[in-house]
Amino acid sequence: MKDMQNMGETVRKKKIKRMKKTFLFLYSFLFLSLFYSSCGKSFSGDGGELTGVSAPGWTEPNPYGMVLIKRGAFSMGHADNDSLWGTVRDAKGISLESFWMDETEITNAKYRQFLYWVRDSIIRERLFDPNYGGNDLFKITEDREGNPIDQPYLNWRRPIPSDKRANEDELKAIKSVNWTNPITGEVKLDPEQMVYRYSIFDATGYALRRNRLKPSDRVRNTDITVNPDEVVMISKDTAYINEDGQIISETITRPLSSIFDFLNTYIINIYPDETVWINDFNNAYNEPYMRLYFNHPGYNDYPVVGISWEQANAFCHWRTEYLKRSLDNVNRNTIEPYRLPTEAEFEYAARSGKSENIYPWRQNGTKGDKDCFLGNFKPGEGNYTEDGHLVPARVASYSPNEFGLYDMAGNVAEWTSTSFLESGLEVMNDLNPEYRYHAAKEDPYALKRKVVRGGSWKDVAHFIRSDVRSYEYQNEQRSYIGFRCVRTQVGFSKAKGKK
Predict the structure, then answer these.
(1) How far apart (Å, rounded) are the C-alpha atoms in residues 111 and 340?
(2) What angle do CA 236, 238, 242 make, to 5 degrees?
(3) Which of 216, 268, 349, 430 fits as disulfide partner to 314, beta carbons 3.0 to 4.6 Å?
(4) Can you say how many angstroms the Cα of residue 203 is from the centroid of all Cα atoms in its chain?
(5) Contact at 8 Å (CB) between 399 and 374?
């Protein structure tokens, strides 16, 4: 009997042992099945090798009216001494990333699109204002589910009523952006009201190691003891409108506390200075240009002038935001912004990427094979008309350079993003060279100079050369300075001349 009990116990233990093996096998099989089913595609596809994972992304649309300048290298600056003009050889080899560039200067018509957008924004704000009727349809205050939005925004799908269809309050709002000359009765947009507010994140300042939020991240040298209580002072630009309606712009300095210390805010009056035609030329009858050049349809396709460096930057920001509004929410914050070209980008584009080119064209002179002028400048003393034009010409009146860019010499000089220093290239890197200085309001005026390139309709041949640099103060407006935009290309672009 006892032997039979022992035999039964032995059989039971063997069954339990077999069951454990079975469960272990099934568990292992289930684990491997889950492993292969969850990542089997990647595992079987790469054969167990390191192949990388593609980052999610999308292809940016080709910008309208722009030319792609492929990455390349050239010798920037003067190749030879010029005792007549006091220039010395300062050529430096540099390399640039690919970028898009406007094929022409920004015209009056294109800048007017910016101006009218600001005008319509003001009108919509006032149509929503209870003082002008309080029409809630001109602002989006709720999401699709009917939940309140923290920051309501303008409803651009709601058209502004025409003068004939507007009621009394609406007409008051529409007319409120105008100014009437009390002497002549002329009605035009009120320049004082045309202001654009925007904020820019200083990514470069934020990236600098000395500006890291954690003191221990500011120094990599382990031989140096980092003071955890070290205070880093940050300067940032800010702007607001006071109770009297005045724009207050200032640079504040405060201890670094958060990423928001690198957000700079600006409020810019964007209306072109139409009086530049009078103030740039003493004892000259230029009143017709003052009255007509910006607003007359006959000058639609002429380069906009009377624009400061500050206004040009505001335009670039608006143009970026205008593009973003046409994109879906996922991709709108990944595009490269429109901006002013760096000094190096402008020279590279003007010279068609060729170190030997003095002008945008192949010739070393200012006339082509048929003895015709190749750009709009001042050919002789007191003679502005020999090239066929008196003041700025319609954009693209002359042939483009090899890159397909028009008016890179003459017509109007153009703002760049680069701050002006006499030392120029000496202080810049040879990789995407750029020198920027964000001048505070209280800084000396000399620190507010920005590089201007290309020369203009009022300059002699020397000053429209592609290797000649000049400057103007960032808040100044001239009848001979305009601008165009660039945008860094995202993607793959072969270097110029490479296959």
Answers:
(1) 15
(2) 155
(3) 268
(4) 13
(5) yes
**Do 433 and 94 form a contact (C-beta atoms < 8 A)?**
yes
pLDDT, tens digit, 9 for 90 and up, residues 27-56: 444 444 444 444 445 445 678 889 888 777
pLDDT value, residue 2: 46
Tell me how far CA of residue 278 lies from CA of 92, 282, 477, in angstroms.
Answer: 40, 7, 12
Provide CB contacts within 8 A for 170, sequence distance 6+. 127, 132, 133, 135, 161
C-alpha–C-alpha distance, residues 112 and 118, integer Å: 10
CA end-to-end distance (rounded Å), the chain: 94
- Looking at 318-464, which runs of residues are DSSP E strands? 413-419, 449-453
DSSP reduced 3-state for 136? helix
User: Where is 20: in which H helix or E strand?
Assistant: helix 2-46
Ranges assigned E (strand) in 294-424? 413-419
Beta-carbon contacts of 127 under 8 Å, excluding residues fewer than 6 positions away, are: 133, 135, 138, 160, 170, 173
* DSSP code, position 420: P
Look at the chain and count its residues: 499
Rounded distance between C-alpha atoms, residue 421 and residue 464, angstroms: 20
Tokens representing 361 are 């064209």
- Cα(469)–Cα(92) distance, rounded to whole angstroms? 15
3-state SS assignment for residue 15? helix
DSSP letter for 59, please. P
Residues in a beta bridge with 82: 87
* Cβ contact 315:115 at 8 Å: no
Helices then strands, each counted (H, E), the chain: 8, 17
Q: Which two tokens mark 250?
A: 């200032």
- Predicted pLDDT of residue 328: 76
Q: Which pLDDT value is given to residue 32?
A: 44
Single-letter amino acid, residue 219: V
Chain position carrying tokens 């020198």: 435
Provide the H-helix boundaries in 94-213: 108-128, 168-175, 203-207
DSSP at 356: T
pLDDT of residue 62: 84
Measured distance CA(154)–CA(367) in Å, rounded = 52
Structure token digits, residue 20 = 């454990």
Q: What are the residue ranges in the chain where pLDDT is below 50?
A: 1-5, 7, 11, 23-40, 42-43, 497-499
Are the beta carbons of 305 and 272 closer than 8 angstroms?
A: yes
CA distances to 100, 180, 188, 237 from 488, rounded to whole Å, are 6, 43, 37, 25
Please answer whether residues 360 and 401 qualify as being in contact, where contact means their C-beta atoms are separated by less than 8 angstroms: yes
Q: Are the CB atoms for 304 and 482 separated by under 8 Å?
A: yes
pLDDT of residue 410: 97
Question: Which one-letter DSSP state was computed for residue 431?
Answer: B
